[in-house]
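User:
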Amino acid sequence: MEISRSYQSPNFDERSAEISALVLHYTGMEDFGSAISRLCDSGISNRVSAHYVIDEDGSIFSLLDESKRAWHAGVSFWRGLESLNDFSLGIELVNKGHDFGYHAFADAQMSSLLSLSRRIVSEHKISSSWILGHSDISPDRKLDPGELFDWSYLADGGVGFVPRIVDIDVNNEFKRTDINDSCLDDLLNDLLTRIGYAPFCARRVAAFQRRYRCRLINNVADYECVSLARALLRGWGEQ
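Assistant: Predicted structure:
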């Protein structure tokens, strides 16, 4: 795995906590050059950075050392903790994003991401529940890496866990319970809080759907979402 250090970002500070999370983003800009320019620009008020950028051809660029605190997560929350910049690594995937022509991520790009993520997860002992998308930790602000990102590809390669809809029998999941439509919202919200999403976010159901049920993203609680949320917690060994 070759990693280029031909670009370096000045936008960082010192880390005050051990690395325990990995956050994936898309760049959301027109092209690689625009993204690199933005991530390495120290002359703007809203400075940003990431530890790594992966271009569509699979090239990996390290913008700053993992020991430094990058500015990629912004206002964020997961599992009771805020300010994920403090203890996370950020990887940016070059993709135009929803504002400029969102498209599927290239095979070479995903292959490089898997290799890099495997090393990061192993070295820092990051658990599946802390492998995150930007939309997981900032559901009311962010959509990335989005519904076209293949989380299952990473999971199949040993990075994270994804419950499979084909493995979930929604009828059997509920036929032994007294759950009904009137309590679906409360049940799913409780599960999403246990999973890690920030409470009181207007779009957290949509964020969960964007990652785990991307064929239908409507921000509405239903039996399938509850089944997926339960299966996710079971996969993490927490239910």
